[in-house]
Amino acid sequence: MTAYLVAILIFAVIYGFVALGLNIQWGLTGLINLGQVAFFAVGAYCAALTTQAGLPLLPALVLAALVSGSLGGAVALFTPRLREDYLAIVTLGFSEFVRLIFLNEKWLAGGPDGIAGIPRPVTIPGLDSETSFLVIAAVLLAVAFWFSQRLAHFPIGRTLRAIREDETVVASIGKPTLTYKTLAFVLGAALAGIGGALFASYLTYISPDMFGPNVSIYVLAAVLLGRQGSTLGTLAGTAVVAVLLEGTRLLKDYITVVDGVQLAALRLMALGLALMIIVAVRYGPGRRA
Amino acid sequence: MSNLLEIAGLNKRFGGLQAVDRCELSVREGSITGLIGPNGAGKTTLFSIISGFTKPDSGQIRFGGRRIEGRGAYEVARRGLRRTFQIPRELKEMSVLENLMLVPEGQFGDRLLSVLLPGARVRQEEQVNEAAAREVLETVGLAEKADIAAARLSGGQKKLLELARCLMSRPRLMLLDEPTAGVNPTLIRHLMKVMQKVHASGITLLIIEHNMNVIMELCERVVVLDRGHVIAAGTPAEIQQNKQVLDAYLGGVDA
After folding, report:
1. Strand pairing of B66-67 and B229-234?
2. B78/A159 Cβ within 8 A
3. How far apart (Å, rounded) are the C-alpha atoms in residues A99 and A90?
4. CA-CA distance, A42 to A61, in Å (whole number)?
5. What is the pLDDT of residues B131-171, one digit of tens each?
6. Are strands B66-67 and B173-177 parallel, antiparallel or unpaired?
7. What's the structural domain count of chain A?
8. Residue A6 near residue A176, CB atoms below 8 Å
9. What distance lies between CA B75 and its chain's CA centroid?
10. What integer is the mean pLDDT of A255-261?
């Protein structure tokens, strides 16, 4: 039971990185990214391959952030002016493209078999492997939170919020909007990369089927639940999503009317329902658009 | 004095519509110049081209002697040429003060690096910018609204905010797109005083305006645009007597 709770918490922390990243892109700057899983996947594979080659975890995290961030920059530069309608399509397509590369290029990352035996190289003396991993990941998430929070409340965050509200105005006062949007996209992708690296290291096994579009939607739900743009809210939203997705597994011991497969479907329905209620309450008739 | 803005042979076509047609126009440094013309004459399109939001098909625009046509909007703005929008585009979710504090150029806090360093420098910079923003709000008469959300301003106050945002950067040239449209007469008087104050502080103004009283009182020179082409230019008194201008407005009725 405790082990299970630790596992849920670790997943929540990992998704926390991905959601914080999306919050910088979408919540703060208004850039719709439906393919956040691509940067998560690239971070995961990057860490898997480099830690297997003997790189310690922390440098592997930094490398994952750099690689995912650069990839984010490339996507940003290839998307005309990062307009939201294009961006939604490009990011969604891009994430599938990335998954298919990992699936089909066996020489690169094992193809459909994925990569097994990824080292989880950290333990804190006196704690078991899982708990030490949780502590380290949580500390890193706290750093990411601190960074996001400062970013949102500093003048640069004001500029990003202004871009979300009305890009034309920001250009009219002499600020290079494309540069700021690219920056936001890169930061968000880098955070997702760190999340991916932790994911690979924690599970010690990854395969392409873990990086489907549903991951992008889960983090989108987390940011939405947490009120778009709020850093603390994003983490709270991530916790809710983690509990809805993972925590409801516990229910199978108490609910006997439905079997495991049906319960799995119900969990997704619960998440969908929660999203619909949030959107209806917060953005429904009579509320701001 | 020399011309701050010079436009030569400017053309812009949207499909079958020649929105700007061999346009020639100049604005003298230190002047208030009016730009008038019937609806659909291409005034706002011209502003949009000058400020870099729309690319012209051909022609030249010189600002302070340097070519600016085809440059991006933010580059043009950085050179000291700023515009307001006909329909105010206040950033609704931000306070009036924040709308202005966004403006100053080269803010250290606007760089990613600032997020990673101790906050003292940014705090100090913010204090300076806040003081400057409050001063501008004082100038335009919005000081009491500084801390409310911009969305809660009235239509006229939003016009003032547009002006304030433009003024905040101390540009060389301001393009004001119908600053008094849809504003009540009392506020029009106030807006005119503000524009005169801005002008007196050394900023050149080019104003699109339909209200002839405003034009007569403020402008030393008026340029008339019709179907994208400049059909007349002169003092307000001359323009009022110009038969071609009357024709343009009244649709060619014999005067």
Report:
1. unpaired
2. no
3. 14
4. 12
5. 999 999 999 999 999 999 999 998 889 999 999 999 999 99
6. unpaired
7. 1
8. no
9. 16
10. 71
Gap from A175 CA to chain B (nearest CA, Å): 5
Closest residue in chain B to residue A144, using alpha carbons only:
B116
- Provide the residue type at B100 as one letter: L
Spatial neighbors of A63 by CB under 8 A, at least 6 apart, are: A46, A47, A50, A55
Instruction: Decide the pairing of beta strands B32-36 and B204-208.
Output: parallel
Residue partners of A234: CB distance under 8 A and separation at least 6:
A16, A19, A20, A22, A23, A27, A148, A222, A223, A226
Residue that is written with structure tokens 């039971």 in the block: A1
pLDDT digits (tens, 9 = 90+) for B65-75: 899 988 889 99
What does the block give as tokens for B31? 């002047």
Tokens of A266: 């119900």
Question: Which residues constitute the domain of residue A139?
Answer: 1-211
- Beta strands at B173-177 and B3-14: parallel, antiparallel or unpaired: unpaired
The number of beta carbons lying within 10 Å of the beta carbon of residue A255 is 13
The label of the residue with tokens 């995290």 reads A61
A260: pLDDT strictly greater than 80:
no
Q: Are the Cβ atoms of A155 and B105 closer than 8 angstroms?
A: no
* Chain B positions in Cβ-Cβ contact with residue A169 (cut-off 8 Å): 85, 89, 91, 165
d(CA B167, CA A115): 59
Residue B153, φ and ψ in degrees, nearest 5: -70, 155
DSSP of A133-186: HHHHHHHHHHHHHHHHHHHHHSHHHHHHHHHHH-HHHHHHTT--HHHHHHHHHH
Bridge partners, residue B204, by sequence = B173
Beta carbons of B97 and B147 less than 8 angstroms apart = yes
Each residue of A124-159: b (16+ CB within 10 Å) or e?
eeeeeebbbbbebbeebbeebbebbbbbbebbbbbb
Question: Cβ contacts (< 8 Å) between A162 and chain B: which residues?
Answer: 91, 94, 102
Chain A, 195 to 214: residues with Cβ < 8 Å from chain B are: none
Strands (DSSP E) found in A201-250: 205-206
| Most distant CA atoms of chain B, gap in Å | 72
Residue whose entry in the numeric block shows the structure tokens 């439905």: A258
Contacts of B89 in chain A (CB under 8 A): 166, 168-169
CA distance linking residue B46 with residue A157, whole number of Å: 33
pLDDT exceeds 50 at position A231: yes
